[in-house]
Amino acid sequence: MKLLSAAQIRALDQATIREQRTTSTALMERAAIALAGWLYQHYTPAEAGEILLLCGPGNNGGDGLALARLLYLAGYAVRLGLLPAAKYSDDYEYNHHVLPKVIAIQELSAEKLPDIQPGTLVVDALFGTGLSRPLDGVAAAVVRHLNGSHARVVAIDLPSGLLADAPQPDPQAPVVRASHTISFGLPKLAFLLPQNADYVGEWHVVDIGLSPDFIAQADTPWHLTRLPGTGGFDAALAARQPDVALPRRGKFAYKNTFGHALLLAGSRGKVGAAVLASGACLRGGVGLLTVAVPGCGYDIIQTTRPEAMCLPDTQADFISELPDLKPYQAVGIGPGLGQEEASRAVLEKLLREAKVPLVIDADALNLLGEHRELLALLPENTVLTPHIGEFTRLTEKARDDYHRLDLLRDFVQKHKCIVILKGAYTAVAAPDGQVYFNSTGNPGMGTGGSGDVLTGLVLALRADQRLDTVLAARLAVLAHGHAGDLAARETGEAGLVASDLVQHIGPALAVLVQ
Ligand SMILES: NC(=O)C1=CN([C@@H]2O[C@H](COP(=O)(O)OP(=O)(O)OC[C@H]3O[C@@H](n4cnc5c(N)ncnc54)[C@H](OP(=O)(O)O)[C@@H]3O)[C@@H](O)[C@H]2O)[C@@H](O)CC1
Ligand SMILES: Nc1ncnc2c1ncn2[C@@H]1O[C@H](COP(=O)(O)OP(=O)(O)O)[C@@H](O)[C@H]1O
Ligand SMILES: [K+]
């Protein structure tokens, strides 16, 4: 699904109103009904206690006023804190006008801040996508007061003070720290970046019937890849066109259909990385797998991965030889490789000689970072799988998460490669500058070897002749995260280890089959 900028979201609202021959007031009512529905599901009136809704002067505040009315009518105790302004939006004015008169209203000022107890349920309807400058004055005082209160905060559309698609121009200006953020129609880019995690809290999207045609035509580099059937919002769009799908294996398919992959991995003390990556490659559906390891890894691979063929290096402790590449449809290098000069030379030779898709990870990335002249040799459509530290070694230290996305798009466009920038919401960046964030996975995957598993899975899908590079990368990342989610159901997050991911790749891929 697409992620749109604040300007596009405003245009989307307008297009929806036009196409559906409705009014902005009616759209706001839909928004308020969707918000109320979410709150009903999450808090009974008793659990909620008295709900404080803080409203700004625009349509975000209008949403808050409409929500206050609906909550009151549904039996919740509500009170309002309203930000004074020179001008209010028309729909704010309307919803202010139709408020039940019994709802208590406090005009907010820096001298008279609202009573907020720890545990008060606060709805933040101060500002949404219309934020035009950093918060100051009364708004800043209210947000600082709220953030210091330990209240439960549900933000409407965006935590107030946060921009939907850009870094804060003034890092000193306050931003609401929400426990939950309820966004309309689509998530926002800001939700996916680690620097905003403390503000956004858990985010949710509610469907308010925004124009699917406008979304389909909107031009954006940002996308979120989801599992098929992940419903709720934009369900109509998702049903029409799943984000990604794995083609079914034909009845008469043979192992050659799925390719023969070569994996170069392991060094003394790190042969486990080769075991994990090769397991993932096999479970990823590769036709044949050959694993090149240092001599010390031969018995280990032959014992733990009987399905794979093994090429032991003449060196006992590290890889020093590049096998003949002719038999293979894809080559992966890096997990546990180490950074010996001989292994660097193997990497260079591979970059010079490979005629098939490459997947580069871990120490092979560190070698590229150390010897950046090798980047010029990257064959087109090579897949690189760095975490943020490895990516920094390949580029430069980013000022913030938005700057890192700029570096990422520049890098893939310059080197005509695919970068899988790993983390929560792993970003798959394509050579045309499109970025696909991933929606699966959990913090349990922050455990040694998870990345090696991803490399093996990407390699399997790159060897599969039916898939193009970007689709293979997106599918691998989606299935890897989903395998993590399936595994964590059994082990819990803390108990998750990388081998568990390998065990769950089969079922994770199965749900992606078209
Ligand atoms: N359109 C629709 O149909 C639907 C829209 N929806 C809702 O609308 C929201 C967007 O509404 P919006 O565009 O009115 O912007 P909003 O975020 O309320 O703020 C604008 C106001 O704040 C003011 N202001 C800005 N920055 C400020 C600052 N730092 N300090 C002080 N003031 C500041 C700004 O003043 P100005 O910049 O003009 O001086 C203006 O008065 C969106 O997030 C969603 O919740 C839903 O109902 C679905 C249907
Ligand atoms: N909080 C998280 N949410 C989702 N996925 C995560 C999270 N933390 C780590 N991961 C995933 O786990 C993998 C870790 O890879 P990496 O850092 O290379 O580990 P290692 O080097 O130990 O193999 C990546 O695919 C990453 O996206
Ligand atoms: K808000």
Automatic annotation (TrEMBL):
Q: How is the cofactor bound?
A: Binds 1 potassium ion per subunit.
Listed binding positions for K(+) are N60, D124, S160
The name this protein carries in UniProt is: Bifunctional NAD(P)H-hydrate repair enzyme
Q: Where does (6S)-NADPHX bind?
A: 59-63, 128-134, 157, 273, 336, 387, 452
Note the superkingdom of the native organism.
Answer: Bacteria
Which segments constitute the YjeF N-terminal domain? 9-216
Q: State whether it acts alone or in a complex, and with which partners, per the record.
A: Homotetramer.
Catalyzed reactions: (6R)-NADHX = (6S)-NADHX; (6R)-NADPHX = (6S)-NADPHX; (6S)-NADHX + ADP = AMP + phosphate + NADH + H(+); (6S)-NADPHX + ADP = AMP + phosphate + NADPH + H(+)
Keyword annotations: ATP-binding, Isomerase, Lyase, Metal-binding, Multifunctional enzyme, NAD, NADP, Nucleotide-binding, Potassium
What EC number(s) would the UniProt record show?
4.2.1.136, 5.1.99.6
Binding positions (AMP): K422, G423, A424, Y425, T426, G451
Q: Which NCBIfam families match?
A: yjeF_cterm, yjeF_nterm
Q: Which cofactor does it need?
A: K(+); Mg(2+)
Function statement: Bifunctional enzyme that catalyzes the epimerization of the S- and R-forms of NAD(P)HX and the dehydration of the S-form of NAD(P)HX at the expense of ADP, which is converted to AMP. This allows the repair of both epimers of NAD(P)HX, a damaged form of NAD(P)H that is a result of enzymatic or heat-dependent hydration. Catalyzes the epimerization of the S- and R-forms of NAD(P)HX, a damaged form of NAD(P)H that is a result of enzymatic or heat-dependent hydration. This is a prerequisite for the S-specific NAD(P)H-hydrate dehydratase to allow the repair of both epimers of NAD(P)HX.
Q: Which InterPro entries match?
A: Carbohydrate_kinase_pred_CS, CARKD, Nnr, Ribokinase-like, YjeF_N_dom, YjeF_N_dom_sf
The family note in this entry says:
In the C-terminal section; belongs to the NnrD/CARKD family.
YjeF C-terminal domain spans which residues?
A: 238-512
